[in-house]
Structure formats: structure tokens, C-alpha cells
Amino acid sequence: MAASHAPHLTERARYRHWVSDTIRYSDTDMVGHVNNLAFAAYCETGRTRFMHEFPKPLVGKDAQTVIARLMLNFLGEAHWPGVVEVGTGVIAVGNSSMTLGQGLFSEGRCIASAESTIVMIDQVTRKPRRVPDDFRAWLLGYKID
Fold first, then answer.
1. Do 78 and 33 contact (CB within 8 A), yes or no?
2. If you compute the radius of gyration of the chain from its CA atoms, what whole number of angstroms results?
């Protein structure tokens, strides 16, 4: 099965939301470059910081979000010491889920792109629940075209 790769996710100008993460020495492998687990952690930093910028709490006693899918495309190497800049935007919003797109950049070049699907669920039943309308509208303000 061929991996999906959306080339527009590698374009820095597509993103309105940015965070940076420090490349730690422990992020590197025996070859000396950042390992795949660290790339996933940088994506997590971008996703969680993006979601927490919504002006009111999304999760609580009755709802939470869970990641259902993460697809990473490794496009280049990164090395310690350094910084990874993570751009995050919205690809799509469904009834109970959202798909985020991300670009990871180091030293001015895109080193990875990612797509993640996040599902909103009921805390008690653990079943999907509808994305609130105000959150949906906020998400669509970060749509990647």
C-alpha cells in the first residue's frame, strides 16, 4: 500500500499555528540523527499546543479527544543540537473527528510532514461524540487549502 503524502504540508506558508521544540541529545540514534520516535513527539507537541489554544476547555468530565491515526512522512534528517519548528493546520473536520496536517522544519527545510486524525469521545461511554459547533468553526479558521 502506497503512503499518502500531501505535498502542500511541506509548504511553510500554509500554516498559521507554530510552536518550536528543542532537539534533545536523547532524541538521536546511533547514526547521529533524530530518531522516528522523536519526530512523533514533535508532532504531539504541535497537536496538543494547537488544541489547547481553543479559548475554552474542550475536555472535562464528559468529553475528551483521542488520537486515532498518525501518519508521518520522513523527508530529511535533523541533528542535535537544534530546534524543530512545527506548523499545524486543519485538513478536515467530520462529525466526531478532525484531521490535522503538520510540517516539521529544521534549519529552514521541511524534514517531515504528518497527518493525524483525532476523535472526540464521550468520557463515560467511550463512543464518538459530535464536535461542538464553536470548536468546529474555530478549527476551520486554520484550514489548510
1. yes
2. 16
Nearest 5°: CA angle at 76, between 72 and 79? 110
| CATH number of residue 21's parent domain | 3.10.129.10
User: Grid coordinates standing for 128?
Assistant: 464518538
- The total number of structural domains that make up the chain: 1
For residue 68, the enclosing domain spans 12-140
Q: List helix spans (H) across the chain.
A: 36-51, 133-140
Walk along the chain (145 residues) and give the pLDDT tens digit of each residue.
Answer: 344 556 689 999 999 999 999 999 999 999 999 999 999 999 999 999 999 888 776 666 678 899 999 999 999 999 999 999 999 999 999 999 999 999 999 999 999 999 999 999 998 899 999 999 999 999 999 999 7
The residue count for the chain: 145
Burial (CB count within 10 angstroms: exposed 0-12, middle 13-18, buried 19+), residue 9: buried
How far apart, in whole angstroms, are the C-alpha atoms of residue 141 and residue 145? 11
Does 3 fall in a domain? no
Sign of dihedral through CA atoms 27, 32, 35, 41?
positive
